Structure formats: structure tokens, C-alpha cells
User: Fold this.
Amino acid sequence: MMIGVPRNFVRAHLKRVPQPVNVATMIDRLSSPQFALKVLVATTVVATAWSVSSPHDFAIWCFELLPGIAGVIGVTLLSRRFRFSALLYYVIACSFVMIAVGARYTYAEVPLMNWVRDALGLSRNYFDRVGHFVQGLTVGLLAREVLLRTTQFCCRFAAAFLTACVALAFSAFYELLEWWCVVPFYPDAGPEWLGMQGDPWDAQWDMSLALAGAVTGMLLLGRQHDRGIAAVVGSDGEPGGDA
Assistant:
């Protein structure tokens, strides 16, 4: 004698059964600007909590990380009116993690790069150089997206040239900002605060690497960035630039 099973029981049981992962759905979710923004915010919170838990020098931590936190807050607030591409949110998240690492240990004393320095017999800890490269890549993609979505260019070279100029200008401004902050308050410890590590051309190297990062970002991520911009422009119904 068959005993009938209530449909509600079957449905409730099926909901508890693990469903196979839908790769296409996962990719769509990762490509969503809304999801990417949540990842950026979560990454910022976790990285900040980890970084401030045991900083090498709290004053340096504030000097290095607070501008990054302000930048993420600014991007998040701006996203209410001007959503950026998912790729840009992910790049900003990775950049913030690097800033958090540098703020915790100081850029000249990041343990992993100290190990690389000692293993390869290098003359310095190169984490700060990598950080300025990533800074240029991040600012470059941000400038590129704003320029392409808010202006009309007769050729792609003009957009690329202005993007590189913005990244280089931001890097130069950051070098000046460091100098303006260090000289009045820490005149006797300027080289240590600025992470020069004995290199008199440190600022020039930093700016050059930021420019290289911006150019590399356009070359390697340009097409993917274009697709992300097109997706945002299409969903928001806004006119786009020559992307």
C-alpha cells in the first residue's frame, strides 16, 4: 500500500539538497558591478582590520592607509550615481590590499619582499616599486573609464594619452603630498618615512613605474575594460564614449 508524500515536504527536502554549481551564473555574478562593489567594500573592511591589528608604526599606518580608505569611500558614494565597471572595482580592491600590507609593515619592510631581496641579493625591498606600478594601473583605469564615458574622442590614442597623463600627474601629486607632510613634521626622518632606501632617484622611479602601470593596464586589460564599460553603459542607458 503506497503512502502519499505531501508535496510541501518534497519541495522543502529538495531545497536542502545541494544544487550543482552553474558556471554561467557564477560568471554573470562576478561580472556584475553591484557584486564587485560589495567585494570591494568587504575587502576594504577586512584588509583594514588586519592592517591595523599590529602596525609597525601607527603614524605611518595613518599616513599610508587613510588616503586609501578615503578613496574607497569616495568611489562607493560616487557609485550611487555613476556605477563603474566590475573590472575597475576588482582592481581597486587589489590595490587597496597592497596599500594595507604596506601600511602595516611599511613599504620598505614587507616580509615577503625582504625574503625576495635576500634570496636574490637585491639592493632594496621592491614592494614600494610594485605598489607604485599598481597605483598607476588603478588610477589609469579609473581615468580611462571616466574619460570614455563622459567625453567623445576622435581617436583612441587621445583617450590613451590623457589616461597616461592623469596617472602620471596623480603619481607626481602623491610624491609632493608625501614631501609636504614629512618635511614639516619629520624633517630628520624624511628618507625613512618616504621609503627612499638610499636611492636619490626614488621619486622619479616611482613616477616612472606609475606611468608604466597605466600603459600596461591599457594594453593588457583594455579590451576587457571596454566590455565592462559597455555592459554598464547599456544597463544604465547612458551614452558612452568611444570605448
